[in-house]
Amino acid sequence: MARLGDGRVVFVVGAVRGDICKVSLISEHPQICRAEIADLIQPSHHRIEPDCPVYPKCGGCNFRHITYEEELWAKLKRVNDALERIGGISARADEIISTGQIDGYRNKAVFHSARQGGNAVIGFYRAGSHDVCPVGRCMLLHDELNDALSKLQRNPFQKERTITLRTGQNSVDASVEITLDGLVFRVSNTSFFQVNNSAALLLYKKAREYAALSKNEVLVDLYCGVGSLTLFLGRDARYALGVENNPLAVDDARDNARRNGISHADFIYADAAKWDAGSLRPDCVVVDPPRKGLSKGAIQKILEMSPSRIVYISCDPATFARDIGNLRDYEVQQICAVDMFPRTANVECCALLRRKLHSSP
Fold this sequence. Notes:
Blueprint (H helix, E strand, L loop, with lengths): L1 E2 L5 E5 L6 E9 L3 E11 L25 H18 L10 E2 L10 E9 L2 E7 L6 E3 L8 H12 L6 E6 L8 E6 L2 E6 L8 H15 L6 E5 L5 H7 L4 E6 L2 H13 L5 E5 L14 E4 L8 H10 L3 E6 L2 H10 L3 E9 L9 E8 L6
Parallel strand pairs: 2-4, 5-17, 12-13, 12-15, 13-14, 15-16
Antiparallel strand pairs: 1-2, 3-4, 6-7, 6-9, 7-8, 10-11, 16-18, 17-18
Helix pairs in contact: 1-7
């Protein structure tokens, strides 16, 4: 990001903090412009040579041209800028935690097949389009997924198709088992699970620290998916309830509770905004919503339950900041960022909110 002589902000595609360059404007608006580099006069010391032959064409990675240290700085700044500008929140994330593993971490891939020049190809969609960029091997993926990709390339689909694979499977309808901290989770292809097992463990441990549940307390997990957070945090509680609107994920969650011997956890198929909580008054509510964040109804449901604390996990700093600002009866106690998606622009956030003293349950 830079500024033009007239004060307008200009976002320079592919530029790095510290670059000195000439730019060419792509689009102009009253306050914000977009530009591309016309001539890189002096590269930043944060800039490195990309190590992937299809970067940035495939659009999967965003940061292969900068050092990992600079990437972490940029992600932490993105989170804190959102908190300030969107949420109007004074609290800041003072750290971004990382496994240090920047490649070979993804346990899931979505490939697309297409015909190009009379040939069948398999790869990823280019950024902002449905054009398929052929990929021989993706540096972000587990070896097992790259092996599966190689098999698909040797006998590609002749028609357009989307293929979703998880680590350990080579079909589009199987399920896999993922182990975190001694808990084993079955995950179906249609169910959500974090794509980075090692970083997920860091995130879940941070959420468990924030939740700080005791054996006489109750946990409610909205958008619970296959029950991974419900069980990871809920094993410390007296009772845990997961709420999820994907029936197949609810089946997985119930199975995961059984296979891990956690009998004090229940799961219901319901909309997070519309389910009947009745007289349930949880001590802690954990939420890990989709990228679009919490609906107004879900926020109202949380406020009605009035837990003493909320643990909010999000993969989108903008909706994260917006929703925290709308949880009016709560104040932020702690925030951290987690690098769940190295070499991409995405970043995970985790916050602990406590009910304000003047807000009664």
